[in-house]
Amino acid sequence: MTTHATPPMIGSRIERVDALRGLALLGIILANVPYAPGLSEIHSDTRYIIGSPSIENMLQVFSSIFIDKKFIPIFSILFGFGFSVQLSKIQGSRSEFNTYFRRRMLLLFLIGCMHGYLLWFGDITRNYALCGLLLLVVYKWPLARILWLALILSVPATALVYILNAALNLQQYGYDVSMVKDLYLTDNYLRYLQINATIDPLVNFLQDSPITLVFCSGQILLGFWLGQTGFFYNPGLFKSRIRTWILFGSTFGVLGSVGLWAITTGKIELSGASAGLIFLVVGGLVLQSLFYVALFVKLYHYHRWRRLLGLFIPVGKMALTNYLMQTVFCLLFFFHWPHALQLYGKVTLTETYLIALCIFGFQTIYSHWWFEHFTQGPVEMLWKKLAYRNVATKHTEYIHH
To answer: What is the C-alpha to C-alpha distance for residues 216 and 241, in angstroms, rounded to an integer?
Structure first.
C-alpha cells in the first residue's frame, strides 16, 4: 500500500533535501574537476608535492567506484522531487501551472546553453530541462505506472541505448579527441569557443544525450514518485525501504560500479554474451545512488549528524548558482585562457581534489553569508522572476525545490 505524506505548508522548505542537494554538489565538483592523468606529457617538470603514484592510482580507482557518475542520479531524483513539491503548491489551474513550468524549463535550457557554449561543454542542465517536460505528460498517471516507467527507463532502456551506442561506434564520431586537451591548454578564448562549439554538439547530443536523456528521465520520474509517496517529507515511515536501499546499494550497487570501472579501463570487454553485463552495471549505478540517498536520510535523523550535514543546506538552496560558479572557479584554477593559475597538467589528482575541496569550502561559506541577506540564490532569483513574467499565474505561489 502506498503511503502518502502531507506536504509542508507553502513557503516552507525541506531542509534535508537542501542538505542532500548541497552535498551532491560536492560530488559533482569532485567528479568534474579538470585533471590531466599524463602529467609528464604536458609538463615534464611536474613533481608530486602531495601524493605519490601509488596514492594516485588508488584515488583514481576510488573515484571511479564511489564518485564518478554517482551524483547526477541524485540530482535527477531531487529535480523530480522538486516538481512534486511545486505541483503540491498549485493554487491556480493546472493549465496555468503547465504554462509556468514550460517557461521555467525553457529558461533552464537557455541557461544551460550559455553555460555549455560560453564556459564548459559538460553542461547537464539542458538535459534536465528536456527531461522535465516529460513530467507534464505523466504526472496525472497512477503512481504505480510512473514507478514502472521510471525503473524501465533507468535500467533496461539505458542499458540498451548504451549497447546501441557502442554498436554504432558513436564514441568515435566526428572530432579528434585531442581537442579536449587543447580546450584546457589554449590561452585564446576565441579558440576555446571554437573548440567548445565543435565538441559540445557531438559529445552532449550525438554521443551522450540518448543515454543521458533516457537515464535522467527515469531518475527524475523516480524522484517525482518519491515525492508523491512522501519519502522526503517523513522518512521515518519508510524505514524498511531505507534499510533495503542501504543493504543492496552497498553490495550490489558497489559491485556494479566495480564492473563499470573494469569496463571503462578495458579489463572487461563488452562483446557478445558479456554485453548483458551492462544491465547489471546500470542497475548497480541506480542502487548505489539510492544507497547514498538512504544513508544520508538515515544519518540526518540523528542530531549530531544533522548539525554536520546541515552545513550543506545553504549550498543546496542555491544549487544552480553554485553549479555554475563551480565552472567559473575551475576555469580560473585550471584552464589557460583566463590567464589565471593555469594548473591543468601541473598538479596531481590528490592536489586537484584538495583544490576542489577548497572551492567547495568557499562556496559553503559564501552560501551561508548570502542567505543571511537574501532569500534565494542570484541565479535562482532571476530564473524565478523570468518564469513568472507574463504568465497568468504570476500571483500563484510555486515553491522551487
So the answer is: 22
Cα distance between residue 26 and residue 359, in whole Å:
10
CA distances from 264 to 64, 69, 259, 270, 340 (A): 9, 13, 9, 10, 33
Distance, in Å, from the CA atom of 33 to the CA atom of 28, rounded to the nearest integer, reads: 8
Q: How high is the pLDDT of residue 30?
A: 95
Model confidence, pTM: 0.90
Tens digit of each residue's pLDDT (9 = 90 or more) over 89-103:
775 677 888 888 999
277 burial via Cβ count (<10 Å: 0-12, 13-18, 19+) = middle
- Please check whether residue 336 lies inside any domain of the structure: yes
Separation of alpha carbons 322 and 371, rounded Å? 13
Please count the structural domains in the chain.
1
Over the stretch 38-70, which tens digit does the pLDDT of each residue have?
654 455 455 556 667 888 889 999 999 999 989
Q: In this structure, is residue 253 part of a structural domain? A: yes
d(CA 258, CA 250): 12
Give the C-alpha separation, 343 to 180, whole Å: 16
Among 158-172, 242-256, 354-368, name the one with the lowest average pLDDT: 158-172
Q: Whole domain around residue 352: which residue ranges?
A: 15-388
Q: Alpha-carbon distance 88 to 6, whole Å?
A: 9
Q: How far is Cα 112 from Cα 131, in angstroms, rounded to an integer?
A: 13
What is the distance between the alpha carbons of residues 311 and 173, in angstroms, rounded to a whole number? Answer: 44
Least confident of 81-90, 163-172, 278-287: 163-172
Exposure of 37 in the CB half-sphere (CA atoms within 13 A): 4
| Model pLDDT, residue 398 | 44
Does any domain span residue 92?
A: yes
Judge whether 152 lies within some domain.
Answer: yes
